Amino acid sequence: MQFMIEIPAALPATTVKELLEEHFLIPRKIRHFLRIKKHVLINGQSINWQSPVRAGDRICLTFDEEDYPPKSILMGRAELVEELYQDQHLIIVNKSEGMKTHANEPAELALLNHVSAYVGQTCYVVHRLDKETSGAVLFAKNPFVLPILNRMLENKAIRREYWALTDGQPSQKTMTFRDRIGRDRHDRRKRLVDPQKGQTAETQVTRLKNFSQTSLVNCQLKTGRTHQIRVHLSHHGLPIVGDPLYHPQPQGRLMLHAHRLTLTHPFTLEKLLVEAPSVSFEEGLR
Q: By its UniProt entry, which InterPro entries does this protein fall under (predicted)?
């Protein structure tokens, strides 16, 4: 693999060593290979590890198979992919409800397999959506950018916003739920609020529109626990319409849709705001 990256003006002054280690998060072993093989060029020239990197410089990185051994998965159906954004390093797609983000068995096909077929190479999951949830999902197109995107997700630098149709109406315009979430020991499929043993979780909820007995709310994740939005809303008396696990009388599809993904591109520092349309979700609001 070879990548050419132009250093953006907004990147703070740094050295080659700091750039590879702190910004690109390249593991020590691979940085060693890059250095001894002279696989790092700045503006076409070999460099010293302490050389300064300036805005406008073009850095060329060459990775061999021993750096990132090739990984292959079963290719899916490219025609099932709805692209929302794509560049050399990442792709954002619109997942339909009823489709898994990634497979649990080697012979199973899921969105990751379809995206890999669409791109023409193995891609990598950055975050996932529940099978019943639709909307924007981010994938890394190479193992070089994957740890960078993972760190951004951990540092809350990737903002994920969801629309949910709740059965019942919130008492306030905005609310923040911080109930800890753990496993339901009576049902392995489910999660529940567990103040003692649960993991920290935070969901910001904003009421967008009231209907006769339901409400459309916007949910922003501050953490990424399994079923977080579904558990928080259900726990506070606002189960999501159609939720097969947390609504006492589910009807129709789960009315939860990841409608917006916002992040700063790790290499260009360009702000990306990607929205995912959903015909079936919008029809459910009528």
A: PsdUridine_synth_cat_dom_sf, PsdUridine_synth_RluA-like_CS, PsdUridine_synth_RsuA/RluA, RluA_PseudoU_synthase
